[in-house]
Specification:
By secondary structure, the chain is an alpha/beta fold. The protein has two domains: 182 residues, Rossmann fold (3-Layer(aba) Sandwich); 112 residues, 3-Layer(aba) Sandwich (Rossmann fold). It has twelve helices and eleven strands. The strands form two sheets. It has a seven-stranded mixed β-sheet with strand order 3-2-1-4-5-10-11, sandwiched between helices. Strand 10 and strand 11 form a beta hairpin. The longest helix has 22 residues. The radius of gyration is 22 Å and the shape is elongated. The mean pLDDT is 96. Bound molecules: 6-O-phosphono-beta-D-fructofuranose. The site of 6-O-phosphono-beta-D-fructofuranose has 10 residues, from loops.
Length: 332
């Protein structure tokens, strides 16, 4: 007997927003449309599914959102969805709206929610989108590149004023418990030092000595990048003041890193991921995450995906050190 084609799917964005989420929503809706599948947008993530907060999405309704930052579907972090009662309500919404499967766009927390929902009989497909790039099963997550660019743009501006005043700048960047954003940005701005959670904090060698060496080499301003997972940028500034005797200025970039129009890489990746997510559902492959490996799309069973860890390539840290002015090394 021929298997019945899926008729209606839901799409939602959950957790912290990321540039490119809209491009992913658009790709899901347009791909579904091309396959004759109806698409319902669930607003405010898992909480919206509990509250039956939805909007019907047509191919037209997602016009002109590919370049927009944020998410037109809104997003939230739902406490209710962590309870069995909340999840059963979400299942009831799916039944009521005739939603046969959900495409969930977000990070780790979003996928944990998706796994729970799948255990209650609603098939899911996940699309990784977070500026933290900390999803183990995927080399890349939507939003990372745009967030890096935003941070670089801000730091370049900071450098202008730090240079004029011959100051030291301590910039805290996001990334939750991961240092991807900090290290990539640090390399891109030519930072004096970068502190990341993947490396044991060594204030003396990784911070104080690096500033002192840069100073000895004639530098008169210093750019220090601190991943939020390492701790408070103000504490790092205090350590610099005590260790080097200079008075740094602190900038916490904060949520500005999550905003702005997605760049080409994020739009293109989001579009491919959305396309593959709906095709997986249409072909009966469910409960998977759509990840990337060496640029290509791959599907990973969600349970396995949540166990996977992605290591920061530490050769990048070595490269950063090489680029810095470290007299002790140069003289050896
Ligand atoms: O996961 C994305 C992220 O921006 C992290 O980098 C950061 O730690 C967190 O979300 C901030 O969350 P909120 O927007 O809830 O303050």
């Amino acid at each position: 007997m021929e298997e019945k084609m899926i008729q209606r799917i839901g799409v939602l964005t959950s957790g912290g927003d990321a540039p490119g989420m809209n491009a992913a929503v658009r790709a899901v809706v347009r791909t579904a449309h091309s396959l004759g599948i109806e698409c319902v947008g669930i607003r405010r993530g898992w909480q919206g599914l509990i509250n039956s907060d939805f909007v019907v999405l047509t191919a037209d309704s997602v016009s002109r959102i590919i370049s927009r930052g944020g998410t037109i579907l809104y997003t939230a972090r739902s406490e209710d969805f962590m309870t069995e009662k909340g999840r059963l309500k979400a299942v009831a919404t799916c039944k009521m709206l005739g939603i046969e499967a959900i495409v969930a766009i977000g990070g780790d927390g979003t996928f944990r929610g998706a796994l729970e929902l799948s255990r209650l009989g609603i098939p899911v497909v996940g699309i990784p989108a977070t500026i933290d790039n900390d999803i183990g099963c995927s080399n890349y997550t939507i939003g990372f590149d745009s967030a890096c660019n935003t941070a670089v743009e801000c730091i370049d501006k900071l450098r202008d004023t730090m240079q004029s005043h011959e100051r030291c700048s301590v910039v805290e960047v996001m990334g939750r418990n991961a240092g991807f954003l900090a290290l990539y940005v640090g390399i891109a701005v030519g930072a004096t030092a970068v502190l990341i959670p993947e490396r044991e904090l060594d204030i003396e060698n990784d911070l104080i000595k690096r500033i002192q060496n840069a100073r000895l080499a004639g530098h008169n301003h210093f750019m220090i990048i601190v991943a939020e997972g390492v701790g408070n940028a103000y504490d790092i500034a205090k350590a610099i003041k005590e260790g080097v005797g200079i008075d740094p200025r602190v900038t916490v970039l904060g949520h500005i890193q999550r905003g702005g129009s997605p760049n080409a890489r994020d739009r293109e990746t989001a579009t491919r991921m959305g396309y593959y997510a709906v095709n997986a559902l249409a072909q009966g492959r469910t409960n998977v995450i759509i990840g990337t490996k060496e640029g290509a799309i791959k599907e990973i069973p969600i349970e396995e995906a949540l166990q996977m860890k992605k290591a920061l390539q530490m050769d990048r840290y070595g490269i950063l050190e090489t680029m810095g002015v470290d007299n002790s090394k140069i003289r050896q």
